Every structure is written in C-alpha cells, then in structure tokens.
C-alpha cells in the first residue's frame, strides 16, 4: 500500500532519529516584504549516517544549517514556526547559555571558507587550545597535547610545527583540516559540513572528503553534508534530500534518488551534470529561474519551471508520497498521480 505524508513522519519517529526538523518556517524581512526562505515540513537524520542536503544556490541549505545552531541572523531572519529536535530535545527551547554548551560539544559546523572560522592574528595552535579550554576542564598542557592528537587525527603534517603557524602560512586544504580538528576538539557527535570543499581544487577536495569519511568510520560521527555538487553528495552520503525554494521535493537513499529520480527538479539537476560520454551535446539547462522568495508560487514551488505542470500543481501543494521503501517525493505526478 502506498504510504503518504502522515506515515512519512510516523515511520521516522519510530526509528528514533538523532536530529529531526519539523515544520520549520524561516522568513527574511526584506525591503519588498517577507521572504519565505525555508518551509521544511520534515527531515530526519539518523545516528552514524551522512545525509546530503542538495539544491541550487539560494535554495535555503545554509539557512537550514544555521537554524540548527540557532545562529541565523535575527533580524533580518525570523523563525516563524517549527521544532528542531536533537536527541528528542527541542533546540529552540534552549537558552543561549544552554546552546553555547551544545555548540562544539554535541553539534559542530564547518564552513565553505576555512578563514571564516579562523582568526588571522592568532596561531592555529592558540585557536584550537582556546576552544578546548573553553569547553573542557583541562590544563593548558593537556589542551596542547589534545590539540596535537587532533592535528594527527586530521592528518596535518608535523603537528608540533603546524601548531605554531598562523592561518595564512597554511594551504587552503591544511586550513580546512585545522577547522575540522577544531570542530571535533570537544567530542561533537554531529557535524554540519556546509560545502566544506567548494573553495578547494579537486585534488585537495578529494583529500578532505576522504578525511571526513575516515573520521566518520573512526568516531561514529553523524554528518549533515551540504553541497551543490551532486557528484560530491553521491560520493559522501547514504541518503539525500533535494531542496527547492526552501522545500524538500525528494528524499531517499542516494542510490535510489540518483538512479531513479522522480521529481522533475531532481531529474533536471541530474541532467545538468556534465558527462564525459556526451561531450558533443549541449548541457541541459532548466528553463526559468528559482522563484523570488517574496513572491513564492502557490501550490508546487517548481511548477513555473516544470514541463509536467498542470492547474493542480499551481493550486495545491503536493504532499510527500513513498515511491519505493524510503524514497519519498512531493509531486502531483509521482506514483499514480494521486497525491
Ligand atoms: N541576510 C539576508 N537577508 C535577506 N535574504 C537573505 C539573507 N541571507 C540569505 N537570504 C536569502 O535566503 C535564501 C537562502 O539562502 P541560503 O544562503 O540559505 O541558500 P543556500 O542554498 O545555502 O545557497 P548557497 O548554495 O549559495 O550557499 C536566498 O534567497 C538568500 O537570498
């Protein structure tokens, strides 16, 4: 029997996810009025998995990530509604003081540009020991040894020497390794990686991706991996959610979603990936542009760009429907077209 939206929630709640996002609505106040940037009905991430969040630039990936940490700039952003549960506790109900204890200790984040997390006027050693001393009851000497261990864990060459370097003395890949070491320095079990390799060239990128995979195996880390690149998501993640204009349109195991995409947006994104075997063909381009968040279309947000769009798509928002076990899509044309 086909399962629908209500089962989608019920199923995941039974399996007890580590992180759950429920009905998260985030608006930005803009000159043109409120912009509906995120309208995330439901998302769950399980212990030990790497979950990929993919979508075009501006689809709301970073807003979702920053919401988990209660770090979206407010104003202009406003969390209108929703819950983010971590180990069944609502993070939105935590005080700023409690959140300070959670950030770094349980949840950590790494960003696209490592320099946004590093201070250019302190050595990387000073910066990592400061983080350790802030969160842990250890002596300076113990913090120093912990820092060296972490530098070794992230495979930085000559940890003692690296410890004394300023960020500008390290390469981009080494800086990202320092940031990963800092993110893990207080034992965080959940890592949000927001396009951590976007600013790096491909060989360095591969090194960082392999490092994250190894760390996950060694430490049992759970990762929310945000990326524009479907190739990187395919390499890193077990499950993926496709975000379009702030809403999840398709979610499931990477192998299912990428081999048998159902939502026209997912198919369009996969079509747009350059393939060496089709070098002569022009790249597929999805017509139109993502919607203006101050004037989101009613119904399905993708309908103005969708070749299958009908009046129904314009009028009502499609609900999630399960196509195959664990593979959910929100499209009026999915399944037998009954959702
Ligand atoms: N301070 C702000 N004021 C107004 N709108 C904002 C602000 N910050 C972000 N936005 C809007 O929120 C939307 C989502 O942005 P977000 O950075 O979350 O997207 P993203 O998918 O992470 O993009 P990228 O892949 O480029 O990082 C965009 O339309 C963006 O213009």
TrEMBL record:
What domain of life does the UniProt record list for this protein's source?
Bacteria
Give the CC-aspect GO terms: plasma membrane
Tell me the ranges covered by the ABC transporter domain, including all copies: 21-270
Signal sequence extent: none
Keyword Cell membrane attached: yes
Subcellular location, record wording: Cell membrane
Pfam families hit by this protein: ABC_tran, oligo_HPY
**Which Gene Ontology molecular-function terms are recorded?**
ATP binding; ATP hydrolysis activity
Biological process annotations from GO:
peptide transport
SMART domains listed in its UniProt record: AAA
Bilayer topology term: Peripheral membrane protein
Keyword Nucleotide-binding present in the record's keywords: the answer is yes
State the coiled-coil residue ranges: none
Q: Where is it predominantly found?
A: membrane
Record key words, sorted: ATP-binding, Cell inner membrane, Cell membrane, Membrane, Nucleotide-binding, Translocase, Transport
Please give the family membership noted in the entry: Belongs to the ABC transporter superfamily.
Q: What is this protein called?
A: Oligopeptide transport ATP-binding protein OppD
Q: What is the lineage of its organism?
A: Bacteria, Bacillati, Bacillota, Clostridia, Koleobacterales
- The UniProt gene name for this protein comes to oppD_3
């Amino acid at each position: 029997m086909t399962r629908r939206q209500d089962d989608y929630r019920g199923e995941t709640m039974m399996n007890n996810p580590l992180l759950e996002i429920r009905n998260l609505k985030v608006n930005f106040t803009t000159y043109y009025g409120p912009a509906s940037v995120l309208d995330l009905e439901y998302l769950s991430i399980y212990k030990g998995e790497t979950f990929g969040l993919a979508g075009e630039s501006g689809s709301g990936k970073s807003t979702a990530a920053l919401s988990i940490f209660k770090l979206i700039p407010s104003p202009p952003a406003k969390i209108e509604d929703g819950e983010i549960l971590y180990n069944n506790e609502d993070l939105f109900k935590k005080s700023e003081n409690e959140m300070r204890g959670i950030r770094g200790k349980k949840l950590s984040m790494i960003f696209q540009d490592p320099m946004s997390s590093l201070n250019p006027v302190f050595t990387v050693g000073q910066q990592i020991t400061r983080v350790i001393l802030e969160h842990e009851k250890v002596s300076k000497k113990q913090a120093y040894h912990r820092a060296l261990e972490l530098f070794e864990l992230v495979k930085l060459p000559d940890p003692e020497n690296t410890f004394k370097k300023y960020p500008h003395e390290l390469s981009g890949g080494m800086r990202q390794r320092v940031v990963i070491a800092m993110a893990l320095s207080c034992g965080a079990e959940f890592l949000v990686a927001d396009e951590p390799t976007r600013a790096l060239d491909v060989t360095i990128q591969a090194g960082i991706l392999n490092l994250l995979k190894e760390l996950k195996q060694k430490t049992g880390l759970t990762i929310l991996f945000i990326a524009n690149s479907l190739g990187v998501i395919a390499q890193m993640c077990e499950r993926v959610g496709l975000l379009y204009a702030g809403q999840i349109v398709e979610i499931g195991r990477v192998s299912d979603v990428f081999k048998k995409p159902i939502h026209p947006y997912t198919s369009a994104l996969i079509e747009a990936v350059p393939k060496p075997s089709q070098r002569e063909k022009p790249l597929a381009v999805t017509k139109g542009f993502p919607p203006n968040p101050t004037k989101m279309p009613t119904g399905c947000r993708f309908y103005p760009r969708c070749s299958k769009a009908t009046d129904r798509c314009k009028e009502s928002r499609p609900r999630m429907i399960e196509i195959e076990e664990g593979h959910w899509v929100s499209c009026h044309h999915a399944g037998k077209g009954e959702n």
